[in-house]
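Researcher: Sequence recovery benchmark, item below. Answer with residues only.
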């Protein structure tokens, strides 16, 4: 398949993606761009292909005001054009509510194999949360590729409190992460990363 973007374009986009702390309150993401980003999120891979997530787009400004104090008073919560909450499924939802069974049936996958694998994991709720970081990365990278800035937000003391504020059924979902999206009102923070040789080893 022909390259869709040049390596230079992809690299530039990753170099210029940064944790945006100050968003332009007046510049909104178009519906089309938001739907594009959500579609990329939906296409994310997950272990065993179980897609243990749901995405809440918080349009209600009152809800965003309520979230701010429980998210370390971060301005991105209220000022970014969009705020997406990434929910992860609980163990109870996977097994007691039949989610695994349904998805295995849908995908024509071996239910016993799937059940055995997941039931042997040391912490199923943490495992489903981990899958959500893949979504986060895809959201932030794809947003930047279309010129949209972002900030991942894990800065909250209690995911339970965030969930309750949003009326999330905590038997079924945990709040894994938040991500603010919009247009920056600050300059791009220069990248500070460990050297290539420090983080890459060829064996
Ligand atoms: C999972 C995750 C959670 C984060 N949570 C916050 C947060 O709550 N608030 C914030 O301002 N930045 C947050 N960040 C941004 C990081 O601090 C930032 O990505 C890191 O320092 C590297 O900087 P860069 O993204 O500008 O390259 C988070 C990043 C990740 C990946």
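Model:
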């Amino acid at each position: 398949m022909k390259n869709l973007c040049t390596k230079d374009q992809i690299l530039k986009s990753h170099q210029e993606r940064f944790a945006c702390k100050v968003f332009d309150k007046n510049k909104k993401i178009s519906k089309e761009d938001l739907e594009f980003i959500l579609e990329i999120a939906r296409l994310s891979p997950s272990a065993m292909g179980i897609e243990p997530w749901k995405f809440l787009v918080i349009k209600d400004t009152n809800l965003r005001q309520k979230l701010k104090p429980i998210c370390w008073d971060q301005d991105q919560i209220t000022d970014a054009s969009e705020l997406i909450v990434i929910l992860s499924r609980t163990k109870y939802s996977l097994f007691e509510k039949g989610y695994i069974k349904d998805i295995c049936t849908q995908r024509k996958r071996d239910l016993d194999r799937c059940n055995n694998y997941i039931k042997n994991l040391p912490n199923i709720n943490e495992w489903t949360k981990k899958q959500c970081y893949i979504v986060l990365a895809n959201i932030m990278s794809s947003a930047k590729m279309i010129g949209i800035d972002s900030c991942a937000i894990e800065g909250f003391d209690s995911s339970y409190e965030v969930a309750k504020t949003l009326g999330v059924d905590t038997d079924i979902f945990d709040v894994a992460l938040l991500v603010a999206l919009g247009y920056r009102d600050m300059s791009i923070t220069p990248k500070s990363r460990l050297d290539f040789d420090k983080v890459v080893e060829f064996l």
